[in-house]
TrEMBL record, chain B:
The species this protein was found in: Meristemomyces frigidus
Origin superkingdom: Eukaryota
Protein name as annotated: Trafficking protein particle complex subunit
Listed InterPro entries: Longin-like_dom_sf (IPR011012), TRAPPC (IPR007233)
Record keywords, A-Z: Endoplasmic reticulum, ER-Golgi transport, Golgi apparatus, Transport
Length: 168, 157
């Protein structure tokens, strides 16, 4: 029972917070020739930059996915229907949207149950308290400015640990 | 006078998507979903096909530790796409066959055993569509026996 990652997107469709609890494994190249370190002919791009681009790409893919799914659910179930979560064979994605169109997304392993209350708590007790009410944080967060402050990060870590720590 | 609404577990609709993402079968069995015209269903099928593919690539789970070293080069871990989707009014169960055909079953959220139901739909598909000598692969399904067998299985009288 573990959490893999957590994202927050604001109403301007920007990713304003990312948190990962696992090392993302790069998919191996399709060419069988084992020429070692470099892959895909991208000889000039250092590994650190590639990893950063991969994280950004992941956030964009996730946003695109939930945007399309949300639209699909509204089309099928009516305007008041809400997309809640989806499950694949490897992970589960939980979605919570606030009335201000702030989107909280959490990816966990498949056996986790309904995380809606957890996401609501993260929003109400951590985001609102430490980000919205912070006098130093701006009202809008372009590129995530002002969100990843110490109180919010620390609170989130402790909250997730208390929820998912292995029982003694 | 008060009427109590009894939410019964019910199957709303079945969609079948071929390997390329095109919709080949679409039937509604009970009311509960919004009325969409056939064009909307086509677009929906194509969208879901794309989302299914993306959901495989954003897999965050760490790979299982392999017990023996791979023979030639490390094999890509086999990832699956969306198998089940929850919303407040319906649940979508997606079963992808080994040939890439996707069965989308829309049910009410309380419907139990959606996996069993969608497998049975796949069996009926195999019996009446695949074994039909006049059916062209990957084309829209227009087989009357298939529709009757499906209705007999999915519609509660």
């Amino acid at each position: 029972m573990s959490v893999y990652s957590f994202y927050i997107f604001d109403r301007h469709t920007e990713c304003i917070y990312t948190k990962r609890w696992t090392e993302h494994h790069a998919p191996p190249t399709s060419r069988p020739s084992a020429t070692g370190a470099l892959s895909n002919g991208a000889a000039d791009v250092p590994v650190a930059t590639r990893r950063a681009m991969k994280l950004e790409d992941d956030a964009k893919l996730i946003f695109g996915t939930i945007f399309s799914l949300r639209r699909m659910v509204r089309q099928l179930g009516g305007a008041d229907d809400q997309f809640l979560s989806y499950r694949t064979g490897e992970y589960k994605l939980h979605y919570f949207e606030t009335p201000t169109q702030l989107k909280l997304i959490m990816l966990t392993d498949m056996r986790v149950g309904n995380m809606r209350t957890v996401l609501y708590q993260i929003w109400a007790t951590l985001y609102v308290e430490y980000v919205v009410k912070s006098p130093l944080a701006p009202t809008e967060h372009p590129r995530g400015v002002g969100v990843a402050n110490e109180l919010f990060e620390g609170g989130l870590e402790r909250f997730i640990e208390s929820m998912f720590s292995p029982q003694p | 006078m008060h009427y109590f609404t009894i939410t019964r577990s019910v199957v709303f609709a079945l969609l079948i998507i071929n390997k390329a993402g095109g919709l080949i079968f679409n039937r509604t069995f009970a009311p509960g979903l919004q009325k969409l015209d056939s064009n909307d269903y086509l677009i929906l099928a194509g969208t879901f096909h794309g989302i299914h593919a993306i959901s495989r690539s954003i897999n965050p789970a760490p790979p299982e530790p392999q017990t023996q070293p791979p023979a030639t080069h490390p094999r890509r871990p086999i990832t699956t796409g969306i198998e089940s989707l929850e919303s407040s009014h319906f649940r979508l169960t997606c079963y992808q066959t080994a040939t890439g055909v996707k069965f989308l079953l829309f049910t009410s959220p309380e419907q139990p055993n959606t996996e069993v139901v969608v497998r049975r739909c796949y069996e009926i598909f195999g019996d009446f569509v695949m074994k039909n000598p006049f059916y062209n692969l990957e084309m829209p399904v227009r087989v009357e026996k298939f529709e009757r067998a499906l209705a007999g299985y999915l519609v509660r009288p």
